Amino acid sequence: MNAKTLQASVEAILFAAGDPVPVTRLANALEIEPELAEQVLLNLKAEYDERQGGICILHLGDKFQMCTRTEFSNEVRTVLEMRRNVPLSQAAFEVLAVVAYNQPVTKSFVEQVRGVDCSGVIASLDEKGLIEEKGRLDLPGKPIVYGTTEAFLRCFCIESLDELPALPGTEEEPETREDEPEVSDNPELEEEN
Fold first, then answer.
1. Are 105 and 145 contacting, i.e. CB atoms less than 8 angstroms apart?
2. Does residue 99 contact residue 83 with C-beta atoms inside 8 Å?
3. What confidence category does residue 82 fall into, taking pLDDT thresholds of 50, 70 and 90?
4. What's the rounded Cα separation, in Å, for the pair 43 and 57?
5. Is 45 exposed, middle or buried (0-12, 13-18, 19+ CB in 10 A)?
6. Contact 118, 95 (CB under 8 A)
7. Does residue 146 contact residue 121 with C-beta atoms inside 8 Å?
């Protein structure tokens, strides 16, 4: 397969998928090395960025997704009759920050940090797709642990959590939390989908 056909294939796959596509999955489908697939994706992304049309390609960690540019969100919503996104409340931003910087975390950890009940805010962020259940701790009651999603990365225009700004008064490397038990690698770990 020549380079032009390969790039066209990648473009077609991203368009048809709609959701983020892992580089390895794309490489397997095209029967090429993951490194070559990633290079083709990055080249295609650069072409879309240079053209500055209505479509862009997002790089989300080890995945890529084709989507509309944010500058045209109002027009897209109008045509698709989508309701406008409601801005996040201050409480939602605080909970999201606690989850993003400390994940995976339990609801009780978030509540301990904030000092107030966070059930409603966590449910709202989960409904918006910004956080999700990442499993359960191997402790009595099997508490749910939460983490951020790909939608979180898209909303904040970052490729990975490594791009989050450093917290004031902290060093580059986040400190390990000793008060939060680690997620168990136990086969009894219950995943929620």
1. yes
2. no
3. low
4. 10
5. middle
6. yes
7. no
To the nearest 10 degrees (0 to 180), the angle between helices 107-114 and 119-128 is 120
The total number of residues shown for the chain amounts to 193
Torsion sign, CA atoms 167, 170, 172, 174: negative
Quote the percentage of the chain above a pLDDT of 90: 36
Can you tell me the distance from the alpha carbon of 70 to that of 54, in angstroms, rounded to the nearest whole number? 9
Ordered structural domains, the chain, with CATH = 3-78 (1.10.10.10), 86-193 (1.10.10.10)
pLDDT at 33: 92
Residue 168 is predicted with a pLDDT of 83
Q: What is the pLDDT of residue 145?
A: 93
- Residue 94 Cα distances to 18, 88, 179, angstroms: 30, 10, 19
pLDDT the model gives residue 128: 87
Q: How many CB atoms lie under 10 A from the CB of residue 118?
A: 24
Q: Which residue has the higher pLDDT, 124 or 73?
A: 124
DSSP designation for 186: -
Sequence-distant (≥ 6) Cβ neighbours of residue 135 within 8 angstroms = 104, 144, 145, 183, 189, 190, 191, 192
Mean pLDDT of the chain: 83
